[in-house]
Specification:
Elements: H1 5-10, E1 20-21, H2 32-44, H3 54-74, E2 81-84, H4 87-97, E3 107-111, H5 120-123, E4 131-135, H6 146-152, E5 157-163, H7 175-184, E6 188-192, H8 204-207, E7 211-215, E8 225-229, H9 231-236, H10 261-281, H11 291-317, E9 322-324, E10 338-343, H12 348-356, E11 360-361, E12 363-365, H13 370-375, E13 384-388, H14 395-405
Parallel strand pairs: 1-11, 3-4, 3-5, 5-6, 6-7
Antiparallel strand pairs: 2-8, 7-8, 9-10, 10-13, 12-13
Length: about 400
């Protein structure tokens, strides 16, 4: 299945400009249809939900439609969708809501490959006597070993937290296998899906994670985020909203201050877009709306990203000065199109600033996955150079990046 790149790029007005955007792990460009929906909400139904008058009822239906859209997107029930401003804030809400269930002596397993969003909120429980255990990646391979996870599990383990794909390494972790290990030990699994969600279809039924969070602004939409939680797990969580919300008020007890309605309505445009890609990739046949179209759309996205990743990885692999930080494979099952590297002892900052002149947007640093950078001695080079591509990037843009990189390597 292939993408019509002319159609794809026409959906993103920012791509008409002079810049090639390859910092998409920080935030993708936004679909025109998303912006149109946000504007439509603000200009026609910008009222509080829950009242009896018609505009309020329309607003309420629009928010409900957003939950339904993300239920299709994640293959779950609309009542299992929690929305918020960002993955960082949703994970903090989740951590707060688990306070009543985490007792002194209980244990949480964290990885050193995660973004701090899925580390910091859980560390706060140490002050209450909860024990943190670290699942660390290999010092040379940067890989998480499932045998190490099994060795960390015991009868006190209550929660395992892991990223689906590292926002530095690009490595795809085997979430279903991790879920099976966690559940066999009586623990729950919380997955940060931010760096995975723009690249592959999400299937909560297949992954069996208890909680899964991602940011819509990395997936062609506005600054908005979504968390899946298994219904029975959400019901058990503490209420973190007003005192008169009881524990059964899911998902609202986990959305203090209410969600951003215009972003919820606008975000539907991102789901619709992937469905449209799926229908087109199948030639209009064999992919209806909903899950089949979403899966077909992401299959086409994955193949486009594999091709451009292979192009860049082949170039980087040909340079003796380059150390790839993550897997060298471009296979769809191995990695997403986020590629990081260092250049000998050179400053990653200097490398990136060389590329700026070519109007190619890449980035250097630790990307809030600070622990893996610090623990693997990468601070000496100002972190890594990160090229984070998505499906609207082209082979020509990769070649432009390569030409800009060559003098610095």
């Amino acid at each position: 299945m292939t993408l019509d790149l002319d159609f794809v790029r026409a959906q993103f007005p920012a791509l008409d400009g002079p810049w090639a955007f390859m910092d998409n792990a920080g935030g993708s460009q936004v679909l025109r249809r998303v912006a149109d929906r946000v504007s439509d909400y603000l200009l026609t139904t910008n009222v509080q939900t829950g009242a009896s008058y018609e505009p309020s009822q329309v607003s309420m239906r629009r928010v409900a439609e957003s939950r339904e859209a993300f239920a299709r997107f994640m293959n779950c029930d609309p009542g299992e969708i929690v929305m918020g401003a960002s993955t960082t804030i949703l994970l903090r809400f989740l951590s707060e809501a688990m306070t009543g269930r985490l007792q002194p002596g209980d244990e949480i397993i964290l990885t050193n490959t995660d973004h701090e969003a899925n580390i910091g909120p859980w560390l706060k429980h140490e002050a209450r006597g909860v024990v943190i255990r670290w699942w660390r990646c290999g010092p040379e391979t940067f890989e998480l070993d499932l045998a190490d996870l099994k060795g960390l599990m015991n009868e006190r383990t209550k929660l395992v937290c892991v990223t689906h794909a590292s926002n530095i390494l690009g490595t795809i972790n085997p979430i279903r296998a991790i879920a099976d290990i966690a559940h066999a030990g009586g623990a729950e699994l919380c997955v940060d899906g931010v760096a995975y969600a723009p690249h592959r279809a999400l299937d909560m039924a297949a992954l069996d994670a208890d909680y899964y969070v991602f940011s819509v602004y990395k997936v062609f939409g506005p600054h908005h985020a979504v968390m899946f939680g298994k219904r029975d797990k959400l019901l058990e969580l503490d209420n973190i909203y007003h005192y008169f919300f009881d524990k059964s008020r899911v998902p609202h007890k986990l959305e203090p201050g209410n969600i951003n309605y215009e972003c919820a309505w606008g975000s539907i445009g991102a789901v619709d877009y992937v469905e449209e890609l799926g229908r087109a990739a199948k030639g209009g046949n064999g992919a209806s709306d909903g899950r089949p179209a979403i899966e077909a759309g992401f299959a086409a996205i994955a193949e486009q990203e594999r091709a451009i990743s292979a192009r860049l990885l082949d170039f980087l692999g040909s340079r003796n000065s380059v150390r790839l930080v993550g897997r060298a494979s471009s296979a769809i099952e191995d990695r997403v199109s986020t590629i990081s590297f260092t250049v000998g002892d050179e400053s990653s900052k200097r490398v990136v600033e060389t590329v700026d002149a070519a109007k190619v947007g890449i980035r250097f640093g630790d990307f809030y996955a600070k622990r893996i950078v610090e623990e693997h001695g990468l601070t000496a080079t100002d972190g890594v150079v990160r090229v984070s591509m998505i499906h609207y990037n082209t082979a020509d843009e990769v070649d432009r990046l390569i030409r800009a990189l060559e003098p610095a390597l």
